[in-house]
Amino acid sequence: MSGRTWVVCRLREWRGLSGRVALFVYRRQREPFGRWIHEHVSSLDVELVRVRGIGEHDELTRAGLERLFAAAPAEMFPWLKRSLLRFQGMPHVARYFHYDAYLAAHSSFTGVLLTDVRDVVFQDDPFLGLDQGLFVGMESPQLTIASGVINRGWMRDAYGDAMLERLGDRQVSCSGVTLGDGVAIRRYVDLMLQEISYFPFSKMKSRSYDQVFHNKLLHCGEMGEVHLCQPLESVIATVACLGPAQLLLSPHGMLLNDDGRIPAIVHQYDRHPALVEAFHSRISAR
Questions:
Q1: Side-chain half-sphere exposure of 217, counting CA atoms within 13 A
Q2: Which helix (H) or strand (E) holds 92?
Q3: From the first residue on, what is the mean pLDDT of each consecutive set of 10 residues in the chain (286 residues)?
Q4: Are 29 and 36 in contact (CB under 8 A)?
Q5: Nearest to 229, CA basis, from 95, 99, 136, 116
Q6: Is residue 118 classed as helix, strand or coil in its secondary structure?
Q7: β-strand pairing of 226-229 with 236-238
Q8: Taking the model in full, what pTM does it have?
């Protein structure tokens, strides 16, 4: 299934039971997504959550809305700024407002997973045996904030050269997959929204770098105690920057950690043709 949407997944209890998948979709996406789910995974508890955003409108309407919002006194009224960012912000930023609203309506969730969709594969229940707290996916240890051109540019644009100098040698954490108990995830979403809302609407409406806020919060110690999920050593295997020789598959086409165990989540698998072939073959055989 393709589409620029996101998932919130929770367990009914902390151990072992299947949970709910909430997909945030535009109105035009509800019918095709619903049909695909019915045909392929009808037994899964999936909620299609309709969200509204500037991206669901045609080009002429978008242009008119952008001109209207540019004249709005967003910085004078925090509630207005949040509403505008939720509607006009880039998907990587707007999703945190949707997470916040959804979790506020489901405060009893015991475990929550915030994840990208297109490049994520699940090999096991990510919450099985997981401790409480916040878990974030780490990129290859060789990738630091300063060494990667994209992350370096994001950090400089958001926080300036001083913060880049301070955090430049830190390992990059990918914001695409984050999980934990309900309390930890709610606090994480609150922190992300505080960072997003700090910057002027005129800037944030065109920025797609939630990852820079994620890394600033992590490496400045503002997340508090957090579990760093190293690739091929943990529940999250973030594999884009790993070499093909580092990727070991089981006879059944499952990616293995270095210790031979199976990571529950494989993120960025589509950067590796061998993983694409293995996963697609395994899924198609079911």
A1: 23
A2: helix 91-104
A3: 40 48 93 93 89 95 96 96 96 96 92 94 91 96 96 97 98 97 96 97 95 98 96 98 96 96 96 95 78
A4: no
A5: 136
A6: coil
A7: unpaired
A8: 0.91
